[in-house]
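<context>
A single protein, sequence plus fold
<sample>
Here is the protein in question:
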Amino acid sequence: MAKNIVIITGASSGIGMEFALQIDAHLRKTDEIWLIARNRQKLKTLAGGLRNNTRVLAMDITVDAQIDRLRDMLREEHCRVRMLVNSAGYGMIGDVAELRLQEQTGMVRLNCEALTAVTRCCLPFMSRGARILQMASSASFVAQPGFAVYAATKSYVDSFSLALREELKEREIYVTSICPGPVDTPFFDIAERHGSTLSVKKLTLVTPEQVVEKALRDACLKRPRSVCSWPIQAFGVLCKVLPHPWITSVIRALKG
């Protein structure tokens, strides 16, 4: 008999942790929640407070061997992935010429390559009615001077998610791209190591609880995107109607 599971990457903190808490509280017909992140102790602490059976997988999903390990576990334990939440990722604020190369290529590996690898790994184990939630960002709406690589990686996530959704339509597997604005998480502890974000962005700050609650609701309703808060929704509309070169020049001027 197949084991019904939920997989959450980046589960040790922030939005990933909040996904674990809310899914644990509301989702039924789930045999296990698999929590993935590099920090085993944080995962064990989180798992200790959940009511569902959990599996702690301390792994670095940017390493191919770890993806192979995940695939082997899914196959050997006859798993059916009911929901995949790809929440692992990070961003660094600063100009491309100023940030360390490893910090920038690391964003691409984790935000894009690892997300793609985990998704592809899980697809053979998903069936009708399954959900995939991909953590993009409102930074994907337009190029972001001073946040260039991060915004580009999130544009990839959003585009990938929308295309994948179309590819999986006949299988009735639904993909939702999550595009919040700034969220009150430890994200900025890393992101602002070399620079600070626009103060106006922090005026639109929302909580992880708000983002996750809306994302789960939108995924349940089979929506292609989940955008939390009306200011970010309005920003998304502006990015569709205003010329992008004008928007990027305004962003750059405000940072300058």
Summary: The first strand starts at residue 3 and ends at 9. DSSP finds ten helices and seven strands in the chain.
